[in-house]
Amino acid sequence: MRFFKVSTAKRREGLRGALNRLLFAFHWLWVLVVRYVAHQSAGNDWKVWRAKAERTGRFLPKKLVVAGDDFGLGVGDWATLGREGAFPTGILRPLPWPLPLVAFPWVAWNRSERHTTTKDWLPSTSTDTGAPSLFDKHLGPAAHDHDADVVILVVGSQDRCPPTETALQALKICEVLEKQGAVVLVASPFIPLAVRENSNDIDENASRRELTAALKARIAAVREAIVARWPDQGTARVRLPPDPNDGLLSSKYWRFGGRYPSGAGYREWSRRWKDHIFLALKTAESKDTHRLAAGR
Asked: Is residue 58 classed as helix, strand or coil in its secondary structure?
């Protein structure tokens, strides 16, 4: 009798795992579909604003780009499609579109790619091989978004290198973006709820504590490096918004077994960052705002 109980429990667990994997596969496909539709909408907006700027002799619209890993991509967020296209997934979706309180029209693109590390986003000029990287593909001199005005950099959650190495790589990315004229917001990597939860398994608890400690060390190393390089955070073009890991312990903020933020989690992240994002937009606009006011 016990054998059949155990077998039934294992079958249920296996079925639950298979259903969760199927759901995640569908969700991953949905994220890609929503991003595609959002990019089509953004591309159309960019063409309209660009044509208007060229016709009137005024300035081009501004570009807001998210670059990074799963959390930058918005995995876990069931964004919805609407009549006007799709809103960007993840941190950008809760922001009001079109963006108010700014002088120029803004168009947003999410160039994040799943399971990518900080090293994957290094410019080829900062690597030993010099091979094209994700930075070159999306933000390099020949890329569509090489002239991005604001970049939200979300990296580090997939890294397995020493924290100091992650920090050095993040610095190199930010320095190149700053030289290209972008204002950069550097996100601290999330510590998934699945890692922070307790378990009855002693070995699993030890593994989770080890991973949590590694992520915290990586967050601290990156934040210390950024502040050391750009100490005046009030005026710097590379900035550190609040760490998203303060709080967010409720299960409503997480999805897929606590591995990814839910839509509510991204909304809470965006709420905490909203003022910092708008300040970055205004900073990026400042070099042209006085000319806009003069009608030139």
From this structure: coil
pLDDT bucket at 126, cuts 50 / 70 / 90:
low
The one-letter amino acid code at 2 reads R
- The alpha carbon of 221 is separated from its chain's Cα centroid by a whole number of angstroms, namely 19
Question: Which helix H or strand E contains 62, and what residues bound it?
Answer: strand 62-68
List b or e across 225-235, with b for residues whose CB sees 16 or more CB atoms inside 10 angstroms.
Answer: bbeeebeeeee
Q: Can you name the residues that pair with 239 across neighbouring β-strands?
A: 185
DSSP label of 183: E
The structure tokens listed for 188 are 């601290």
- Domain hosting residue 143, numbered range: 2-293
10's enclosing H/E stretch is helix 2-56
In DSSP notation, 192-227 reads -HHHHS--S-HHHHHHHHHHHHHHHHHHHHHHHHHH
The CATH number covering residue 173 comes to 3.40.50.1110
Tell me which amino acid residue 230 is: W
The count of structural domains within the chain is 1
What integer pLDDT is reported at residue 83 of this predicted model? 45
SS3 178: helix
Structural contact between residues 155 and 213, judged by C-beta atoms closer than 8 angstroms: no
DSSP 128: S
pLDDT mean over 29-45? 84
Predicted confidence (pLDDT) per residue in 135-173, tens digit: 999 999 889 899 999 999 999 989 989 999 999 999 999
Measured CA to CA, the distance from residue 174 to residue 135 in angstroms comes to 11
Question: Among residues 222, 209, 103, 208, which one has the least CA distance to residue 168?
Answer: 222
